Amino acid sequence: MKVNILALGAHPDDVELACGGTLAKHAAKGLKTAIVDLTQGELGTRGNAATRKKEALDAAKILKLNARLNLGLKDGFIQCDEKSKLSVIKCIRLFQPDVLLINAPSDRHPDHGNAAKLCSEAAFLSGLMKIKTVYKGKSQKAWRPPAVYHYIQDQHIEPDFVVDISDFMEQRMKAIKAYKSQFVSTQSKEPETYISSQAFMDSLSARPMEFGRRSGVKFAEGFLAQRYIGVKLLSDLF
To answer: What predicted TM-score, i.e. pTM, was given to this entire model?
Structure first.
């Protein structure tokens, strides 16, 4: 079940909105990718847990993920407590990612910042051998991801680095639009929300375009690093 990249998100669609292009790009290169949603997004004004589960699976197919799980934590009330940490630790040890992508450290939705703290601490604790976890009746080995990066969400944060997703922007947007209950739909009779407007949908192209323009490519997604970023050669930078 080992993957190269594991993305954790407080809600179904968090990952698609922030770094779907990055996952699609790495999957296209043959790397294994997975998403774990912490909650079912059941408090969302539009849709419900069942519709969002279906939409998440549809988006997973578009992004060509190797796996997608849901931890079933309580939407709106994510806490950095022992029970929640152990749930995340089990997932990290299950997938043994080389790279872990997690929520923004602070954002419009309080669950995002809380999830960032929860997942960051769980990533460290997952490497401690004396914390014992069991998955499907089998003891898990300790695993600490070598790299942990925050993706950027609703609020603008200056990135430490960006990933060129120019060739994967269309695939990213298709995965986002898989969440038909949440975003712009002329057929929906549900209440309008902050994210259901055309203005919000337009912004989903504007930010990657801005990150791309500032880095010399067409579209890019931004990330924050928890420690120094190293390259073997200066030519590794574009």
So the answer is: 0.94
